[in-house]
Each structure stands twice: as C-alpha cells, then as structure tokens.
Amino acid sequence: MAPNSPGKPLVVENLSKTFGGEHALREVDFEVRPGEVHALIGSNGSGKSTMIKVLAGFHQPDPGARALIGEAPFHLGNSHDAEANGIRFVHQELGLIGNMDSVDNVGLGRGFEVSGGRIRWRVERKRVRKLLDRLGVHIDVRIPVESLSLAQRTMIAIARAIDVGAEHGGVRFLVLDEPTASLGGQDARRLFEVVERIRDEGVGVILVSHHLDEVLGIADRVTVLRDGTRIGTFDKTGLDRDKLIHLMTGRRLAAVETQTATRKGGEPALSVRGLTGTVLDGIDLDLWPGEILGIAGLLGSGMEELPPLLLGLVRRKSGDVRVTSSSLRRVTPARAHRHGMWFVSGDRGKYGVFPTFSVYENITISDLGPFAKWGVLRRRAERAGVQEWMHTFDIQPPSSTANIMNLSGGNQQKAVLAKVLRTRPRILVLDDPTRGVDVAAKAEIHRVMDQAAANDTAILLCSSDHDEIARLCDRTLVLRKGVIARELSRSEVDADTLGDLVI
C-alpha cells in the first residue's frame, strides 16, 4: 500500500484482542493527530502493550477492528503496512547491536547507500551525523553503541526510527514505549526535548509511560486504559496526577499510598570495605537490619555495577564483603543465597523470570522444600501455597497456571519479588525494581518493601527514580565516578536535591 499524504490523523476503531478466552482489549477506539504528543497510560495489564503490538504487527487483532490514516485504511497486525504508512516504533528493548557503531545500527533500519557494490561509508557517516544533529545529539558515530550511555542509545534508536526519506513518505507517527524507564531525570529531560522537536515537525507521537509527571509535562492529550477498555481521552488541561491515578485504577491516591515503617538498628547485616570493580573505586558502606539504604547515581557512576559485584555476578577486583560478620571472599550467587542475600533487578528478562515456566513455578522455584515429600514434588500443594503471594502482590490475571510471559511486565516483576521475599531474605539487593511498573503496582511493591524492612530485612535500593529513593530510604549514598560523593539522611533527601547531586 502506498503511503498516505501527510497531515492526516491515525484512527483505530473497535480494536479487540483475546488470548485464550481472556480479553486483553475490548472495542478500543483511539486517535492520534499529526503534531501532537498523545500519551497512552494505564496500570500493568490494562492493554497498552497489546495495543502497541497490534499496531506494530506483532499481534493480529480480533475480527471487526479497523484503522485509517485520514480516509485511507490500512491493515492492523501487519508490520509492512504499518511501515508503509509511516508508523515507526521505539520499544523499551531498543534492539540495537552493541558491538556495532551508530552508522551500522541506523543503516540496518533503512539500508545503506551503495556505489559499485560497496557501501559509501563517508556518505553514511555524514547522513547519521546530520540526523543526530537534527535531534540535538552530538556523539562520535564511529564508536560501538555499547560504549554509549543508555540515554544516547535511546537517541540512536529514535534516530533509526525517524530515518525515513521523503521518497518513502517520511515518518508520520512515532510510538515510544516506556522510553524513560531506565533514564535518570536529566537524561529524561533531554529525551523529551528531542520528542518536542519531532512533534514540532508535524509527527504524531504516541507515548507509553508510567511516569505521570512526565505525561503531564509533555503530552497534549491522554488516553487511559483500564482492564482492556478505554476509560476516555482527555486534554491535558484540567488533569493532575491524582486524577490520572483515579482514572487508571478506579481508586483515589490515598488508597494506593503507603506509610514508611519504623526502622531498627543492631549489628550491620552487610559491611563492604574497599569494593572495587570496573567503575567502583574502593567504596565502603554498612547496611543495618531493618534499614533501606538508597544508592543514587547516573549511568556510569558505578550504581549499576554495585549489585552484580555484591552478588558475585561479576568478579570484583578487590574489597571485602561481609554478611553478618562472615566474609564472602569468593562470592557467588549460590553462596550469597546461602547467607540470605538475594537480588531483584528491573531487568527481569535477564535476571528474573523463567520464560517457559508458569506463574506459580516462577514464584516457588526459590524454595521448593515446603512442597516436597519423600523426594516427590507435590504440585497441588505448590499451587495452593502460591495463592497467598499472588494475593499479596495483586498479580493479575490471578491464574497461577498461566505462562509467566502471558502477564504484563509489571505483573511479571511482582512475581519475581514474590519469589525472593518468600525466602525471607536477610539482605535484599534491588536494582531499579519498579522499572516499567505502574503507579498502583509501585505503591504495592513499596508497601511490601516497608513490611520486609519492618521484619528486619536489610534492603539496598539502587534506583534511578529519585522520588522512590526519597519515599523509602533511611539514608542515601550518592555515587559519582565510582566513589561515594555524599551521604544523606532521610530529612536531607528529596527528588530535586538528588537530581542536582548526581550530576
């Protein structure tokens, strides 16, 4: 199908999608106009991801749905038709090839200019530099993208998405799926400056985000999904965070906020001296039972390196790690678990879920002892034993026998936390644990963290969400260039202060 003329809205009508008898979407109507940022929000499991996957051609819609750009229809569930009509996507998993440079990664999206059977690399480099300049991004396009910050990699993914020549109709609509899920405040602000430039060029931007303050800051209109249905589409004027939460969850803000538990003292649960890795350079810290210790820092500060060093996922160059006075000279994940130290990462695909297992198997795998008798695993007892945890974390849908990959990302993350907390860990090391989790699920996770701390679990929280650190942490360590630059008490911490200190 030939591309439509520019300046026409994208309209989706009567979009439904069913998986195994369960409705993920029910008769959803949606419209995005040229030159607007249209936010698509909802709790985990509301249908946002399903809708984006139908637009991208990953899922086929149920019969009866249709889509148009202006008056011209195109086929939903067809990636070629979406591309031909100028719809481009930047997913949360960016899909870049780390050992290739920016020129290679952008060219793989569009193709390369060739002369005499050879790629014209000088022309390609000039084209990519010009494209990044258009976005206000200035980097060396010849270095591997794995050497760049996550914010810079996100910009390259956006550049690849909008790199569509006029001869192919250009990009008309850009879908950004959780683009700031792993970005700090400063990087997120730079990203949205780029989004505003793209919008001002007449491109319609669909923004999927759990960060409501960002939505209110940049979106022109907001569509809210709940349980697979469209609650409504609203102009930003008159909206605030409390109203959005109510629209998303059906509850007022007071119903999802929690109170911080009183912390306890005692002998340190975790002592670290002189810990050195690739970035971290001889840091010291103590973590006490019942304490939540925050770690704040930008990408490259060493924050992302601390959890894998503590758990033995990567080898430390030097330093001593002690758990309740026992030195872990050769720490491995198995030895860390035996000492009661567990890890939960926001990267659940890499560190969290077992994709071929059911929900209950993912939760119980951390400790099968209670369900084994005479060497035989009692499956009925295993399924029954997991129901309390599914209820505690409000894992939806509540079918424990469903494959874990049928759940939304936020519900998968709640299952990962349930898997770890049912072991009653002494020390819980968290790395952006609420990344990609909606506001209600985040409040539930925070409540469970509070309860774990009240039961004497020591929690180390590495987070790029400064509001989360301010909400939860008794103390906060600010990392810069591999060293601890500041230690802050609870009364000294707020999101703005952290945003200034991490730079």
Intertermini distance: 48 Å
Which range best describes the helical content: under 10%, 10-25%, 25-40%, 40-55%, 55-70% or over 70%?
Answer: 25-40%
CATH architecture of the largest domain: 3-Layer(aba) Sandwich
Q: Which strand order does the major sheet show?
A: 6-9-10-3-11-12
Low-confidence stretches: 1-5, 253-264
Q: Domains counted in the coordinates: how many?
A: 3
Textual characterization of the structure:
The radius of gyration is 24 Å and the shape is globular. It has 3 domains: 1-86 and 172-255, Rossmann fold, CATH 3.40.50.300; 97-170; 270-501, Rossmann fold. The N and C termini lie far apart (48 Å). Strands 6-9-10-3-11-12 form a 6-stranded mixed beta sheet, sandwiched between helices. Strands 18-21-22-15-23-24 form a 6-stranded mixed beta sheet. Helix 3 crosses helix 4 (121-134), helix 3 packs parallel to helix 5 (150-162) and helix 16 packs across helix 17. The longest helix has 16 residues, at 185-200. By secondary structure, the protein is α/β, with parallel strands linked by helices.
